Amino acid sequence: MEDIGFILSTYIATFVGSVALAWYYLRRGKRLAEQLPPEDMPWI
Amino acid sequence: MFRVARYIAAKDLRIELRSRVVVNQVLPFAAIVMVMFAFALNTDAIVSRVAPGLIWLATMFSLLILVQRSFAIESADGATDALKAAGVDPAGIFLGKAFALAVQLLVLEILLLMPAIVLYRARVQWDSVVLLVTTFLAATCGLALVGTLYGGLAAGVRGRETLLPLLLLPVVAPVLIGATRATEAAFHTGGAVVADGWSWLGLLAVFAALFGVGGTLAFGPLIED
Amino acid sequence: MAVTQNRITNTTATDPLAERSVEPAKRRRGGATGTRFTFVLGAATIASMALLVLFGLFLSPADITQGESVRILYIHVGTVWVAYVAFGVTAIASALFLWKRTTSLTWDRIAGASAEVGVLFMALTLFAGSIWGRLSWGQFWVWDARVTTTAFLFITYVGYLAVRGLGGSHQQRGRRSAVVALLAVLEIPLVHFSVKLWRGLHQEASVAGTTKVQLENLMLFSLFLALIAFTLLYVWLVMHRQRVLAMQDALDDKGLDYALAARRAESSTAATTSATTTAATGGTV
């Protein structure tokens, strides 16, 4: 497959970007939850 | 609402008349910007070709300063608190400040046109004066309305002023495109015909109308605490 | 429950925190923002993404005219779809926040979360799009209406996120950013039309090569797969982000109270232990 480098870079960039954002959100959630009681988290 | 607007506009213009900030500071700034364009672009032919664009670019950059000035005078001496305590109609404030800003902008643009003609060798054709005048008026209205709106958003509190360019410049992009193309038509640069210019004028008019209405509605919620 | 005078806020209220120290949420399998629903959603997202990679990169055929570069379109169309949905949601949520009958800070947080995710996907769209353009047209960038409006939208929403970070009360943040979002929506057709008119009149952006894509069955399937996968990802991200923002707002509002309650709880246990030690040692310390 020619141009495979270009094509792969889009897939990898998308993967890395999404995972990084998801990771950031989950980590931030954990950090904040350490300081809050359950009643401030109505989805639980 | 319009009475309030008249008072606010008169106040702003009187402050400007007494302090002469536009003439003493902003105009030289705009002139320097135009000179620097010539330095950057090098060739006479290129500079003449893009002269309309350069005029409007210099205007846009000056708009940023004018907007910040327009709201800086409000925060001096607790003027904003006094306005709020007086229960003034925010739509009136918006229209009044926009009108004053438009007047200052117009003065700036007219004074910029002359160095442009000299430095860039732009040629103003007499048959297209109507187009030129209408373009300047329509574009200025749009810029003043949008500038006042986003200026109200970004005014005063530290950390907010630096946001103004980021917010305002993308929004005025249609005006830059429209005004430049219409001015090119008026100057007959690059084979542009006057007839082309009028369609761009339509765009400028729509822009001004939309933000006139939008701004009047949005200004209230923006400045209330 | 003891009725205590809260010295900070000067209100008399039952203070449930006075009697117990703040118990943070116990360690849960879903972390802090996860629920059963998001867990299932996340699993579905990962599964559909894996399928997308499989079909997009391997099982689907190359295009007749475009060759392998059509594979980029699966990502590109997926991300641009999500980006536009995200900004639409931001606009609607902003309107709902401003409208008096439905106003709630939850709408403001949804607007913010959606815009963040939208900005990421807009950036990915521009990236994939420019790579595709390089392969199809030989150029990374072209000044036509759609591409320029997309770039404009990206910058505008970066500005929106900056406005959200300006500080002030939550209500102020909500109002300011809601107005910015709605003005941005107003602006989009203006920009699109002005660029279209600009390029139309001057014909300067003649795009070399063809933009037409012949979609046969497997390619169409991969495209739908991309839409589904990215939509699931979008929903998952926004749900988690919205919850994080809710926690952040709660912490802003009550964080000081919780810290003070914890301090009080500590000092009261310290007082009881010192009292017991005094009693044990039989007399004054």
Walkthrough of the structure:
- The complex is a heterotrimer of chains A (44), B (225) and C (285).
- Chain A is an all-alpha fold and 44 residues long.
- Chain A is built from 1 helix and no strands.
- The longest helix of chain A is centred in the middle third of the chain and has 30 residues, at 4-33.
- In chain B, helix 2 (21-41) packs across helix 5 and helix 6 (129-154) runs antiparallel to helix 8.
- The model of chain B has no long low-confidence stretch (mean pLDDT 84).
- Chain B is mostly helical and 225 residues long.
- Chain B has one domain.
- With 285 residues, chain C is mainly alpha-helical.
- Chain C has one domain.
- In chain C, 73% of the residues lie in helices and 3% in strands.
- Chain C has 7 helices and 2 strands.
- In chain C, strand 1 (3-6) and strand 2 (11-14) form a beta hairpin.
- In chain C, helix 2 (36-59) runs antiparallel to helix 7 and helix 3 (70-98) packs across helix 7.
- Chain C is elongated.
- Chains in contact: A-C, B-C.
- The A-C interface holds A 1-4, 6-7, 9-11, 13-14, 17-18, 21-22, 25-26, 28-30, 32-38, 40-41, 43-44 and C 22-25, 28, 31-35, 53, 56-57, 62, 67-69, 71-72, 75-76, 79, 116-117, 120, 123-124, 127-128, 131-132, 134-135, 233, 236-237, 240-241, 243-244, 246-248, 250-251, 254-255, 258.
Chart the SSEs and their pairings.
The complex is a heterotrimer of chains A (44), B (225) and C (285).
Chain A: H1 4-33
Chain B: H1 2-19, H2 21-41, H3 44-75, H4 79-85, H5 90-120, H6 129-154, H7 163-171, H8 173-187, H9 194-223
Helix pairs in contact in B: 1-5, 2-3, 2-5, 3-5, 3-6, 3-8, 5-6, 5-9, 6-7, 6-8, 6-9, 8-9
Chain C: E1 3-6, E2 11-14, H1 16-19, H2 36-59, H3 70-98, H4 105-136, H5 145-164, H6 170-202, H7 217-281
Antiparallel strand pairs in C: 1-2
Features:
A: about 45 residues; mainly alpha; B: mainly alpha; 9 helices; about 85% helix; about 0% strand
Which structural category do the helix and sheet elements of chain C fall into? mainly alpha
By DSSP, the count of extended strands of chain C is 2
Order of helices and strands of chain C: EEHHHHHHH
Number of DSSP-assigned strands of chain A: 0
Radius of gyration of chain C: 27 Å
Q: Strand order across the biggest sheet of chain C?
A: 1-2
The assembly state of the depicted protein chains is: heterotrimer
Biggest sheet of chain C, open or closed, and with what strands and sense?
2 strands, antiparallel
The unreliable regions of chain C are 1-22, 202-210
* Amino- and carboxy-terminal Cα gap of chain C: 32 Å
Count of individual helical segments of chain A: 1
Largest interface: A-C, 31 and 48 residues
The largest β sheet of chain A comes out as: none
Instruction: Determine the N-to-C terminus distance of chain A.
Output: 48 Å
Number of helices of chain C: 7
